[in-house]
Amino acid sequence: MPRRSFDVEEDFQREFLIKYLAKQTPPFHVEVGPIVQQRTSSQNARLWALHKMAGDHLGYSADEMHELALCKHFGYNEKERVDPMTGEIRITREPLKRSSTRSKQEFREFMDATETWYGTEFGCWLPS
């Protein structure tokens, strides 16, 4: 059976889902929960423009700034890694959460915190 996902916003959609489920042969998996709006493409574009601006100012790539901002906002785990070229042990930080899986509201909070950090610490602000 292929995986299917249903958003139910109206009574008629719930009725359709009930009929659909009645026709399914167990075993199968069902999850029910609220609809959570994901970040918008304009939110994401603004964040990456900000990362690029701050990165250009500080000498980092936008990807590096993104990782730093994730670690600062969501926290991180430190991992020991062996550099394959030198054999030296390096400590890396991995963010506890990724921005791609945040809701629209959580992403907004991350964006606001990042924008405030970049602006107050590095003088990097995007126009409204």
Question: Mind explaining what this structure looks like?
Answer:
With 128 residues, this protein is mainly alpha-helical. The chain has a domain at 41-122. Helices cover 48% and strands 11% of the residues. It has 4 helices and 2 strands; from the N terminus they run αααββα. The protein has helices at residues 11-22, 41-58, 62-74, 104-122, and strands at 76-82, 89-95. Strands 1-2 form a two-stranded antiparallel ribbon. A hairpin with a 6-residue loop joins strand 1 (76-82) and strand 2. The longest helix is centred in the C-terminal third of the chain and has 19 residues, at 104-122. The protein is flat.
Describe the structure concisely for a colleague:
This protein has helices at 11-22, 41-58, 62-74, 104-122, and strands at 76-82, 89-95. With 128 residues, the chain is mainly alpha-helical.
What would the keywords be for this entry?
128 residues, mainly alpha, 4 helices
Question: What is the strand and helix layout of this fold?
Answer:
Layout (H helix, E strand, L loop, with lengths): L10 H12 L18 H18 L3 H13 L1 E7 L6 E7 L8 H19 L6
Helix pairs in contact: 2-3, 2-4
Low-pLDDT stretches: none
Number of helices: 4
Oligomer: single chain
Largest sheet: 2 strands, antiparallel
Query: Strand order of the main beta sheet, please?
Result: 1-2
Helix content: 40-55%
Rg computed from alpha carbons, rounded to a whole number of angstroms: 21 Å
Strand percentage lies at 5-15%
* Morphology: flat
| pLDDT averaged over residues | 93
Structural class: mainly alpha
The helix-strand sequence is HHHEEH
The termini sit apart by 47 Å
Number of beta-strand segments? 2
